[in-house]
Write a structure and sequence with these properties.
6-stranded mixed beta sheet; 23 strands; alpha+beta; 504 residues; 21% strand; 7-stranded mixed beta sheet
Length: 504
């Protein structure tokens, strides 16, 4: 029997990768490349969509070359992506009207304030599960329509298309200007601030309020769809026609990759940002504490599964900032050695509110600080405080999530690039007071996209079969006493308060 594979395209905030998995969920091929981070003004973050598409083609060809897998033996493709990042482009040429407005970008603060004048920052929360924030795609679309010459006219004439990165990638993979399919899935659509959580369709009232023409929006489909979104074009990087039938936002993909299929199961992904998701079942649970209610996934005709989400804007991006802006080290993984050069943080707290604070504060005016500096402080203390920042933020959000859901977690599943950092994982379990569990396959975002496509293509038959593939690599247990834990956490909260409303 010829071995069958699943391909997963994982387009993230800092890099793009293509991974190939076998029937047992094992990695048989991968290739990954970074792309530029563009900062044209303070608070603005952009990507070049054409560079991302070029990287996509390169990593697909690279993974195929390294693995020597025949593309004809790939049963299906799944995609996953950085969420909320917004692109508008010309359907006839494929040319973007401007750079992608990245999820971290705060240029839409004025739009959010304008919307909040009528109904406050929770104006649309009952419908979409989200507060008004620069984070989400809806205000970004409005900004492009209002500020980039010619785009609104093109949108009204049916020439412009909108998509988050998943839509952009699928459109190009299926032919682009030559018949590319214009679709998204429910998990990505739920991050636009434009989709009704109950109907799983675009909300016309919100579209009218923002002045967004409905015809620019993609069709919303299930995250795993046996009906197939479309097929890869034969003149594309795969060279053959392969069904694309899985699509998930990156954090929802990690939830699927961690097989958190039952209500009460949670995972935390440590990437550019950090994202804690809790499966709440088939009914959306409203948050009373500033968390997000979002769609986790929808498989075929089964009901959608919802989540509570607690997002952290800056996690791995802080390590990258220390590397690139302050030249603390040459490679990101060197931060662990530097942080281990000191026994503790020396009283230093680092709050990386570079583009404001997300949940539970939703303060776009917050800015980052390093507090507690003395003449004793050196690079090791700052490096250690930078790692601890991610763990502190996770604790704060986990406490809020448990309060909202009524679910008390007894362990936390973790994944993402930062979970290779043993010092961070031990501090995470210490500051939480519960075990932290890392799976054998830590590329759970790509794995989740593969699972979604493989279920639709029939390579896997059930969620129970996927659960059998999940295995523990390592578990960390807390060894910090409660007094130390609380003292450290109190200092962190004190530092956070200093960052709030820094920018009027």
């Amino acid at each position: 029997m010829v071995e069958k594979y699943i391909g997963a395209l994982d387009q993230g905030t800092t890099s793009t990768r293509f991974m190939i998995f076998d029937r047992r969920g094992r990695v048989v091929g991968r290739h990954q490349l970074e792309h530029q981070q563009l900062y044209p003004q303070p608070g603005w973050v952009e990507h070049d969509p054409l560079e991302i598409w070029q990287r996509t083609q390169d990593v697909i060809r690279g993974a195929l070359g390294k693995s020597r897998v025949n593309p004809k033996n790939i049963s299906a493709i799944g995609t996953t992506n950085q969420r909320e990042t917004t692109i508008l482009w010309d359907r006839k040429t494929g040319q973007p009207y401007c750079n992608a407005v990245v999820w971290q970008c705060t240029r839409t603060q004025g739009i959010c304030e304008w919307l909040a004048e009528d109904g406050g920052y929770d104006r649309f929360r009952a419908t979409v599960g989200l507060p008004l924030s620069t984070y989400f795609s809806g205000p970004k679309i409005k900004w492009v329509l209002d500020n980039v010459p010619g785009v609104r006219h093109a949108a009204e004439k049916g020439r412009a298309l909108f998509g988050n990165i998943d839509t952009w990638e699928i459109w190009w993979l299926t032919g682009g200007p030559r018949g590319g399919v214009h679709v998204t899935d429910v998990s990505n659509a739920s991050r636009t601030m434009l989709m009704n959580l109950k109907t799983l369709n675009w909300d016309q009232e919100i579209l009218d309020t923002l002045g967004i023409p409905r015809q620019i929006l993609p069709e919303i489909r299930p995250s795993s769809d046996p009906r197939i979104y479309g097929y890869t074009s034969q003149d594309g990087p795969l060279g053959v026609s392969i069904p694309i039938c899985g699509d998930l936002g990156d954090q929802q993909a990690a939830l699927v990759g961690q097989t958190c299929f039952s209500p009460g199961e949670a995972k935390n992904t440590y990437g550019t940002g950090c994202f804690l998701l809790l499966n709440t079942g088939t009914k959306p649970v409203p948050s009373q504490s500033g968390l997000l209610t979002t769609v986790g996934y929808k498989f075929g005709d089964s009901p959608a599964v919802y989540c509570l989400e607690a997002p952290i804007a800056v996690a791995g991006a802080l390590v990258q900032w220390l590397r690139d802006n302050l030249k603390f080290f040459q490679k990101s993984n060197e931060i662990e050695t530097l942080a281990r050069s000191v026994p503790d943080n020396g009283g230093v707290c680092f709050v990386p509110a570079f583009t404001g604070l997300f949940a539970p504060y939703w303060d776009s005016g917050a800015r980052g600080i390093i507090a507690g500096l003395t003449g004793h402080t050196h690079r090791g203390h700052i490096a250690r405080a930078a790692l601890e920042a991610t763990a502190y933020q996770t604790r704060e959000l986990l406490e809020v999530m448990q309060k909202d859901s009524g679910v008390k977690l007894t362990e936390l599943k973790v994944d993402g690039g930062m979970v290779a950092n043993e010092l961070l994982m031990q501090f995470q379990t210490d500051i939480l007071g519960i075990p932290v569990v890392r799976p054998k396959v830590t590329e759970t975002t790509s794995l989740g996209a593969a699972y979604a496509a493989g279920l639709a293509a029939g390579l896997w038959s059930s969620l129970d079969e996927l659960r059998k593939h999940w295995a523990v690599d390592k578990t960390w247990h807390p060894n910090m006493d409660e007094t130390t834990r609380q003292n450290l956490y109190s200092n962190w909260l004190k530092a956070v308060r200093r960052t709030l409303k820094w920018v009027d």
